[in-house]
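Feature request, filed as a ticket because there's no other form

It would be nice if the structure record came with a short human-readable summary line next to the C-alpha cells. Right now we just get the raw output. Example of a typical job, pasted below so the devs can see what we mean:
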Amino acid sequence: MAEILFPALFVLLALGLPVAFAMAISVFVALSFGSSYPNLVVVKEMFSGLDSFPLLAVPFFILAAEIMTGGAVTLAMLRLAQSLVGHLKGGLGHANVVSSAMFAGISGSALADAAGPGTMMIRMMEKGGYGRAYAGALTISSSVVGPIIPPSITMIIYAMQDQQVSVGSLFMAGVLPGILITAAVLLANARVSHKRGYASGAPMPPLGEIARIALYALPALMLVVLIVGGIRFGVFTPTEASVIAVFYALFVGMFVYRSLRVADLPAIILRAALVSGAVLLILGAARAFAWVLIIEGVPQFLAETIIAWDLSPIVFLLAVNALLLVFGLFMDPLPGVMILVPILAPIANSLGIAADHFAIIVIVNLTFGLITPPVGGLIFVVASATNQRPSALIRELPPFFLAALVVLAILTFVPGLSTWLPAISGFSRG
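Raw output as currently delivered:
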C-alpha cells in the first residue's frame, strides 16, 4: 500500500487540496487499490485517533486563545512591547517580534499569532516607513515562536506520541528555545533595519509609565504562569489546565479589561469551534495515514535501517534536521508530529538522546516549515490578511531563514537549552 499511499498524497497536495483531505483521500485510495481492507477502517482509525482525554486540551486552549485575543488584550501586549523596544533603531520591527513572543504565551499557535497582533503590527510598521513586504516577512518569522513557548498545541500532540515526555516537561523545554528564536529574529531585524535606515519609533517612555503599561498587561501574561505552575504542583492535569485557562480568560476579559461582553461569546465559540474542527480533522487524517504506515511495517523498517547505520547521536540529529526541514516543505507540523515521532523518537531514545531535547528539535524543525514554501502556512495567512503576493513576502525572508538555521544548529549542539528547565523544575522524567 505504501507505494500507492505516497504518490497519491503528493499528487493531491500538488493539486492544492488541504493537507487533511489529501491525507485522508490518499489512505482511501491506498486501501481501495492496494489491500483487501474495507474503507470503513479509515473512518474507524480517524475516530480512534481523536478518542483521547488529553486531546480535549486542544479545543479548550483554542477557545481560551480566542477569548484572550480581544482588542484590549492585544493592545496591551503591543503597548508593552513598544514601550520596551520601540525606541531602538528598527523599533517597530522589534516591537512586532516581542509582541509575538508575549502573545505566544496566550495563543499557542503561530497562525493565530500572525493573524492577530501580527496583522496589526504590519499596519503600524507600514505607517512608520517600513516596506510592506518586509513587515509581512518579519511577522511570519516572529510568529513561529507561537508553538514553542507554552502553552503549545503542538507539544500536547507530541506528548501523546512519545511516552518519554510529558506535556509539562515540553512546556518548560520550549521556554529557552523560544527566547533564542525571538533573539535571533530581533538580530536579523536589527541588521536589516540598520542597512535600510528604518528609524526608531517614539522615544522610550519614563520607567514609571513602562511599569504602568506592564502592570496593565500582567493579567494576560499570568496565563502562562497559571498553566505551568498548576501542572507542576499537581493542582490540575494539562487537560484540566485548558479548562481553567478558559475560565481565567473569561474572568480577565470580562472583569479586568472589560472588553468582553456576553453577546460576544457566540461568535468567539463559533470561531474556536471552526479552528478546533480543522485541527482535529488533521489529527484524525494523520492517525489513519500513520496506521497504514504501521501495518506496512514502514516505521520498523526505517528504524532497523537507521540503527544498522550505527550513527553517533550528533550525526543522527543532523540527519533528522535535514529530514524534517525537507518534510516541512510539504507538511504542516501537526501531521508531521503524528507520523514521524513514533518512528524517530524510539531511535533517538536508543541512542541516548534526551527525550526533551529531541522533542524540541522535532517541534522547532516542523514549525519552521510554516515559513518555507511551497506549503508554508504562515506565508499564505499573512499574504491573505494584508493583500500581498506570497512571492513578495518570500523575497524578504532569506535573512530570517539564515537566523532559523543558526537557531537549529545551536539547539542541536547545546541540549541543555532544552533539558535544563525541565530538570530544575521537576518535570523531567529522565
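Something like this underneath would help us a lot:
The chain has 22 helices and no strands.
Residues 54-424 form one domain.
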